[in-house]
Design goal:
The chain is of the alpha/beta class and 472 residues long. The chain contains 15 helices and 21 strands.
């Protein structure tokens, strides 16, 4: 694919790196001299110093032949105007805009188009809002007991990141031996060892302090966690620190979302039956939260004040979600509550580097807001056959969902025949016409219309997607 990116800030650079690793043709545009110099020195792609909302500049970058335009400048208005400009001249180009102003944001992916030729709203195919993406990731972790990184697939399966504790029955075992330890259907998607994340093989040995990504049925998670030396945590009391936009989105989704975890917390009217609090030091924000969430305790207080914590019993809560816009303070606050005995914490952080720091000091889940944005954009760029994408830790591995189309070369072949060691693993499938996912075996035959969930290396991603979905 050829992608034109307008904006060479953190998101633009990270997105370009991911796309370049996937063997895509990338052109980056920015009008800042220092930013352009940095991008030119760190990326193997064309970098143009000019205004990205200029049609002449865009045509110089090759927008006419591009598959997609991604606008991630610091200005929402420039991002939206640039997409609208390109849509007016080159409507066939996929257009994605990052939008930070919530007043501008529209969930364009959910907007139904009644007529085939109706143009997308504002000429933007997909809007990506950092706060919305981060809030969804936090909610997903919270409703799964703050295990860590969790990806749900269908109604039955989940991919869970689990730490191997000392004395675990899995410690020192080769992956091929797991079948002898448990009869539950599980598949290990990746292994984190010594700071590196890689695709495993049957000979891979699981060590103490390793983290593994395991795909399994939801009901099998508690038993498998025991094998790893840990257990599923019960969340009955939740405290959200931060009544800003992200905190409010998280609160709204937790209160109104019906899930295995939270149906115990809320009655049929969405009113909490057990303790759920929102805390912020800003009086205006807490007043708004109090009006928005009737029946929820809202405190205007400094969450680090020991007297307040003791008086309200916040240290007795099961989960603290730190979701302020001060990412460093989120890490400090989450670590502080962990030191007081709160068993689970989720911290909103800037990027994966801070996420790793947070996990190393005992914070169960760190949600990197910038990387969730890149993930969201990547999922839209993968093509119509790809229905989802998720980065594993440092981006060296990606989990993608892809539809096998009529022209795919894998049709009629078994998984054993199409396997490429070290490049990808097929984790699960939804056979064409079926409603449920299955964990396939070596003799499973690929058919057109099958929905396939796989994990690939970043380098092999383009090759693998072309193999399964015939993506150019």
């Amino acid at each position: 694919m050829k992608i034109v990116i307008v904006g060479a800030g953190f998101t633009g650079i990270q997105l370009a790196k991911r796309l370049i690793n996937g063997k895509n043709d990338v052109v980056l545009i920015d009008n800042d001299d220092e930013v352009v110099r940095h991008a030119s020195n760190s990326l193997d792609c064309d970098v143009i110093q000019d205004a990205g909302n200029n049609l002449e500049t865009l045509e110089k970058a090759g927008i006419k032949d591009a598959d997609a335009l991604v606008c991630v400048t610091a200005s929402d208005e420039i991002n939206m105007i640039t997409c609208s400009l390109v849509d007016a001249v080159y409507p066939e180009v996929l257009k994605i805009a990052r939008v930070r102003n919530y007043a501008y944001y529209v969930d364009t992916a959910s907007v139904e188009k009644d007529e085939k030729n109706v143009r997308p709203l504002y000429g933007i195919d997909f809007m990506v809002h950092p706060d919305v993406e981060a809030a969804e990731a936090i909610v997903n972790a919270a409703k799964h007991g703050a295990i860590a990184d969790v990806m749900p697939f269908g109604n039955e399966y989940e991919l869970v990141r689990v730490a191997i504790e000392k004395g675990s029955r899995l410690e020192g075992q080769q992956l091929m031996s797991i079948r002898k330890i448990t009869d539950r259907p599980v598949i290990v998607a990746y292994v984190e060892h010594g700071g590196e994340t890689s695709l495993p093989s049957g000979d891979t040995v699981i060590c103490e302090d390793d983290c593994i990504g395991v795909l399994m049925l939801k009901q099998d998670i508690p038993e498998f966690l025991k094998l790893c030396g840990t257990k599923l945590k019960k969340i009955k009391k939740i405290a959200i620190v931060g009544a800003g936009r992200i905190g409010l989105i998280v609160a709204e989704k937790l209160i109104h979302r019906k899930s295995n975890l939270l149906t115990r917390l809320f009655n049929k009217n969405g009113i909490p039956t057990q303790e759920f609090v929102i805390i912020d030091s800003d009086e205006e924000k807490t007043k708004y939260a109090e009006e928005k969430f009737s029946g929820v305790k809202v405190f205007c207080a400094d969450v680090t004040e020991e007297g307040f914590i003791e008086e309200e019993g916040i240290d007795k809560y099961d989960l603290v979600i730190c979701a302020t816009h001060n990412h460093e303070m989120n890490i400090v606050t989450a670590a502080y509550f962990e030191s007081l005995g709160v068993p689970n914490s989720i911290a909103l952080v800037g990027n994966n580097a801070f996420g790793e720091v947070a996990r190393r000091i005992g914070i169960e889940v760190a949600v990197p807001i910038r990387d969730t944005v890149v993930d969201s954009i990547m999922s839209h760029l993968k093509g119509k056959a790809v229905t989802g994408v998720h980065t594993v830790n440092d981006g060296s591995l990606e989990i993608v969902e892809v539809t096998v189309n009529d022209d795919s070369p894998v049709i009629g072949h078994t998984l054993r025949d199409i396997a490429e060691s070290g490049k990808f693993l097929v984790l699960m499938m939804q056979k064409h016409g079926d409603d449920e996912y299955i964990i396939p075996i070596g003799s499973t035959i690929m058919e057109s219309g099958d929905e396939v969930v796989m994990i690939t290396t970043a380098e092999a991603n383009g090759h693998v997607l072309k193999k399964f979905g015939n993506i150019d």
